[in-house]
Input
Amino acid sequence: MLSKLLTSNRLEPYGINFPVCLAPMVGLTHVALRLVIRDYMPLNARVPWPTEMLNSRRLPNEKVGFTAETFRGEQETFLMPQILGNEEKAIYESVKKLEAWGAQGIDINMGCPVQKALRHNYGVALMGDSQYAAGVVKMATQSTTLPVSVKLRAAGTNGDFSYLLNFVQGLRQSGASWICLHPRTAEQKRRGSADWSQIKALREAVDFPIIGNGDIQTAQDVYNMKEQTGCDLVMSGRGLAARPWMLWQLGEDLGFEMPEHLKHREAPRTQEEEGAEYGRCLFKFVDLCEKYFGEDLGLRKIRYYIRTTAVWLQFGHTLGSISTKSKTIEELKISLEVFFRSPQIMFEYTELRQ
Output
């Protein structure tokens, strides 16, 4: 019953057969984090993988694959980069570049609530005009035969479900393959709780796939969202960034075969086991950041990751201080070795407001 609950979904025609995927996040969803998380992916499990948010005004003039936001690992599959924009020519040129790069889908951001996006009338600002937003989706779907998804927030700024439903139906009519809903309003940003009832209502009101996003910190949250909303796929951002082995836990629960390097041990479940696993992940992440981004940018990426994810650790503030004080990646590695010699405790939940 549990296996059926978590794997039966309307995304199966796209080959998606696992219950949780990573959310696109500025400064986080880059090649280093994706590779760390993929290390815990069960064999034969398939989900879309995001990039950081890419600006369609800049992409046409960039060398895709050679910028920090578009670095990719050699074995990475089902990459579905997220673009931000509202201009037809820029979207067309961006999509074509991403296709050549190896994208297997395109995601359109209509959920970014930051003021810079609002000033340029994209991100969540697009939710203020359903026809305009549908037109943006059409620009993308007419540019490619790849699946196009849209990530959006709850009914723009007012939380009106009837508006949300009409808005989503317009996106579907313009060719969107599926929708991801983060049920917080633009004003909430990261504050308060995500209203999962909106995901449930939307899932029941339409006949196409809906991804649920918001407040997913543990594997149990994935179960809870699937059960409470019926969504076709669960999306997790900072929670999965901090706890990549969530994929391992779910894979064990669902009977997936795990990769060879994980078969000799069981997924971490206790606070102490998860604290130790966080350390293992962090060392991999540091090495990958050094490999792909070099010294200066790599160190900045590492500090940002620690600042975002160490809040789940009992002494996360100490780890943050270590990363800030370290002047080089090598110095940071030495300090991390000392820090993780002592057993660390990782809590299930933290306030997702940073």
Observations:
- The longest helix spans residues 271-309.
- Residues 224 and 306 are 27 Å apart (CA to CA).
